[in-house]
Amino acid sequence: MELNKENMRKIRELILFTALLIVVLWKYEEMLEVLGYVRHLIFPFLLGGAIAFVLNVPMNFIERHLFMEKVRKNKVSDKLARPVSLLSVLCIVVGVLTVVIFGVVPQLVNTFGNLGQSITQFIPHAQAWGGKEVFHGNKEVVELINSVQFDWDKIVETLIDFLNNGAGNMLNSTLTAAKSIISGVSTFVIAFLFAIYILLQKKKLGIQAKKVLFAFVRRGRAEAVVEVSSLTYSTFSSFLTGQCLEAVILGSMFVLAMTIFRLPYALLVGIFIAFTALIPIFGAFLGCAEGAFLIFMVDPMKALMFIVLFLVLQQIEGNLIYPHVVGNSVGLPSIWVLAAVSIGGSLMGVVGMLIFIPIVSVAYALFREIVYLKLKKQGVDPRELEV
Question: For the chain, which terminal residue's Cβ has fewer other Cβ atoms within 10 angstroms, N or C?
C-alpha cells in the first residue's frame, strides 16, 4: 500500500478509533456513568428540540397561509410573522389543554368516583341477566353464577389498609418526591424556553448549522447530509400532521355516532380514542377497551352495541381515512408500517411506535434512491424489471 496523504489519514483515523474502542471496553462502567451524566445534562435540550419540532409543524402552516410572500415583502410584516405564528400556536395549545382540563378531567374524575358504586350495582344485575338470558336452562351454570358473593366490607377494608400503607410510604419519601417534582418542572421550563428560542431563531440557526457543516465536511457529503435532513424533516412533519388529523377525525366520528345512538360517555370516550389513536394501528383499540368497560358498567347491551359501532368506524377509518390522510404522508407499504410499529414498540414502547414509522419511511426512501442509482450505473431501466 502506498503511503500517500490519503492513506496516512485513514491509518491515523483507524488507530484513533481502535484506541477509543479499547478505552471504552476497558473502562466501560465509568463510561456508562459518564454517558448517564451527559444524558442528564442534555436531556432538557433534547426535550426542547422535540417540543420545537412538534410546534413548528402548525407554526409553518400559519406562516405560509397567514403571512404569504406578498405580505412578507413588508419588513414589519416579515419580522412579525414568526412571533405571531408562534403566539397563535401557543394559544391553540393552551385552548386544547383548557378544554381537556375543564371539560374532560372533571367528567373523568366523576366517572371513576362513581365506578365503585356502579360495580356494586352491576354485579347483581349481571348475575340475574346471565342466569336468565345467557345461560337459561343450564341449572349448574346458573347456580354457579348465583353462588358468587362479594364481601364489600372486606374489600373496602383491604383498600383502606393499602392506602394507609401507601400513605405511610409516601410520607417517608416526601423529600424525594418533592425533589423529583422540582427537577421535572425545572427540566420542562428549560426545555420550553429552549424550544421558544429555536422557533424564533430557526432561520438563523439553520444557516449557521449549514456553515459549520460545509466548513468541516467535504461538499459532497455535506450536501448529502442536508438532503437526508430535509427528507427526514418532511417525513416526520407529514406523519405528525397526518396522525393528528386522523386522530381528530376518528374521535369526532365516535362522539357524533355515540351521541346519535344515545350511548353514555360520548365525549369522554371520543376524546380518549382520539388521544390513543395517535399510537398507530393499535392505539384505537386501547380506547375501545376503556370505552367498552365504562359502558359495560352501565348497560351490557349498550357495551356490545359500542363494540359493533367501533368495528364499523374502525373499518371506515382503516380503509378510507388512514390510507389517504396518513398512508400517503409516509409512503410506506402496509407491511412495513406494521413492522415499524412492532419493532418500535418492542424497543421503546409507545414512543417507539410513534417515531419508528417515519424513521423506517426515511430509511425506505433512501434505500430506494440507492437502488435506483445502482440500477442507473449498471444501465438497467427499472421499468424493464416491472414487466
Answer: C
